[in-house]
Specification:
Largest sheet: 9 strands, mixed
Radius of gyration: 29 Å
Bound molecules: ligand 9G3
Number of strands: 31
Shape: globular
Helix content: 25-40%
Structural class: alpha+beta
Number of helices: 15
Strand content: 25-35%
């Protein structure tokens, strides 16, 4: 491609409204341009990268026997009413009416649509396992779209859906997709982890998220430094701590703790460390139920674990007013003793190991000291309710420790069970002619988000450093002085030779100062660069620069072309 006839509107200054580096660089490199909040134009350079990644996804989906199709973006409300999700989702689901006043939505995902197609077409066990996938535009009306393609409102997703005769077969489909995802992200040279994840609103039995590690990631994940355990913090299990034994249980005593509202104040006031105290929180469902959660003072409540343990769809903190009605106390002095209204009391596992602890007395400015779980109060359930922390013992192996990372979720695979097939009555006849419900799985990859995450992981102060498999071009050829006919002729010949070898080349033939050309080429992050200048040519040499390592080689022209061919072949994993 000739740069002078292409369209790469690079920008020097960093856009003010771009908060993460990948958003800044994709704007500056002329890859994307915003049309509206969370809605982007994919400019030519950005589209080439997107299409490269889609091709990798397609190859690995096909290799895993998934079958490509394409579903509509516009979906009739009826299907969502059948699945019960039309009322479950709020403003995030973009709804509209057609000219006949029928209700539709812009598809945020396609479980209903694909299940509707399957319930009409798949009627026998002989037709399964089968897995359909698409690469298609989704719309989710995020309250705060940000970070460019990382959290857009309209975005491209590869979504796949598997259909099986039973749970065991569905596990097989899940594992095939899980392995395909590993291959996809490995081929892109990404540093990622597959982590156990909460299934969230989609339901189903279990799920894994594929997280690209990056400090700008919105998700917190943990991985064990000794075994393969890894989980989103929303789901990561805390190993029960050893109970303290042989401690003399002192007698319960009410203590004035005037104005001591926080755990830190109370612990300091009583000369104790916060891990010897208990904190008490009250939560509510959107159906008016309440729960009291008690944890060790230095631990943090995991609201997803609490919501799941109560079987609630939504969860929120109780208001001061609700807390007053339940406990008779203002916030800061809450505890399970002497409640005005009985509510379930759930204690995190770590509370069991406490002795002679401090707990709110449900009275303004009063706490109990020497409170002992079991003797002075009995939670309804001991359950894992806390967020794990760095350094916690691994719940899966003997001596591993958990390390905390930030991650960008680029993929999510779910075991759906029969949630949608039941709702939409997608059944098949088994070998005995008996009607059975189909078992499903669903599997998503954020296309634009993965390209953005790759940039989060691969950049330096000069700009993007594209992993070659998803780079817009493999190699750029820069003619240092476009006015020098000899240089241009030599550069053009090199360009055509590379193209004939199947190398994708961006030929920078612009009549610009060398510095401008080098800055632009560093910014857009093409992995390899050949520089053709009159000095080098005089010795029959050109310069090869590797963007990632900064390595610079002066080579004879033919050797440089062969080196580029070899480097591209190696990076694409078809090295010979
Ligand atoms: C909605 C809206 C937003 C949503 C959903 C539905 C997320 C929704 C979960 C999934 C699960 C999987 C197939 C591909 C992989 C992910 N946000 N989810 O169902 F109506 Cl507005 O999409 N779907």
């Amino acid at each position: 491609m000739f740069y002078s006839r292409y369209f790469i509107p690079t920008v020097k200054e960093t856009p003010s409204d771009a908060e993460v580096i990948s958003h800044q660089l994709m704007l500056r490199a002329g890859m994307i341009r915003k049309l509206a909040a969370g809605i982007y134009n994919y400019l030519p350079l950005g589209l080439r990268s997107i299409r490269k990644f889609e091709a990798i996804v397609r190859e690995e989906m096909n290799r895993a026997d998934a079958i490509e199709m394409l579903m509509p973006s516009v979906q009739p409300a009826e299907l969502w009413q059948e699945s019960g999700r039309w009322t479950f989702y709020g403003k995030e689901l973009l709804r509209f009416k057609d000219r006949k006043d029928n209700d539709f939505c812009m598809g945020p995902t396609h479980e209903e649509v694909i299940t509707d197609m399957v319930r009409r077409e798949i009627k026998s066990y002989r037709q399964m396992p089968i897995n359909f996938y698409q690469i298609q535009t989704k719309f989710r009306d995020e309250i705060r779209p940000r970070f460019g393609l990382m959290r857009g409102r309209e975005f491209i997703m590869k979504d796949a859906y598997s259909f099986d005769v039973d749970s065991a077969a569905a596990d097989g489909s899940y594992n095939k997709m899980f392995n395909a995802y590993h291959r996809i992200f490995e081929r892109c040279g990404l540093n990622f982890r597959a982590v156990e994840a909460d299934t969230g609103s989609i339901g189903g039995s279990s799920s894994h998220e594929f997280m690209v590690l990056a400090d700008s990631g919105e998700d917190a994940i943990v991985s064990c430094d000794a075994c393969r355990y890894a989980a989103n913090v929303e789901k990561a299990e805390a190993r029960p701590l050893q109970p303290t034994v042989g401690v003399e249980l002192l007698s319960l005593e009410k203590k004035a703790t005037p104005e001591m509202k926080t755990i830190v104040d109370v612990a300091a006031f009583l000369g104790m460390s916060t891990d010897k105290t208990i904190k008490t929180l009250v939560y509510a469902s959107d159906a008016g139920e309440f729960v009291m959660a008690i944890l060790r003072g230095d631990h943090e409540l995991n609201e997803i674990k609490l919501k799941n343990s109560m079987g609630w769809d939504e969860i929120r903190m109780a208001t001061e007013e609700e807390i007053l009605q339940i406990t008779g106390s203002p916030i800061g002095f809450l505890g399970p003793l002497g409640l005005k209204r009985p509510v379930p009391v759930l204690a995190d596992l770590a509370v069991q190991s406490l002795a002679n602890t401090v707990i709110g007395a449900n009275e303004k400015d009063m706490h109990y000291i020497n409170a002992n779980p079991g003797r002075d109060f009995a939670p309804d359930r001991y359950i894992d309710l806390r967020n794990v922390q760095s350094g916690d013992a691994c719940p899966r192996c003997e001596n591993g420790k958990l390390e905390m990372w930030r991650g960008i979720e680029v993929g999510h695979v779910f075991k759906l069970g029969t949630k949608y097939s039941q709702a939409l009555n997608a059944t098949y006849l088994d070998a005995d002619g008996k009607e059975q419900t189909i078992f499903m799985g669903c599997y998503g990859i954020g296309i634009g988000r993965t390209v953005a995450a790759a940039i989060e992981q691969n950049h330096d102060e000069n700009g993007i450093i594209f992993p070659l498999p998803i780079a817009p071009f493999h190699c750029s050829v820069v003619a240092v002085n476009a006015k020098d006919a000899g240089v241009m002729a030599a550069a053009e010949e090199i360009y055509f030779k590379l193209e004939k070898l199947g190398i994708e080349v961006l030929f920078d033939d612009r009549d610009e100062r060398p510095g401008v050309k080098f800055k632009d080429n560093d910014l857009i992050g093409i992995p390899l660069r050949l520089v053709v200048g009159s000095k080098g040519l005089a010795e029959g040499k050109i310069e090869l620069k590797v963007r990632k390592t900064g390595e610079v080689l002066q080579l004879p022209i033919e050797a440089a072309i062969e080196q580029v061919r070899q480097l591209v072949a190696d990076a694409l994993g078809c090295g010979n």
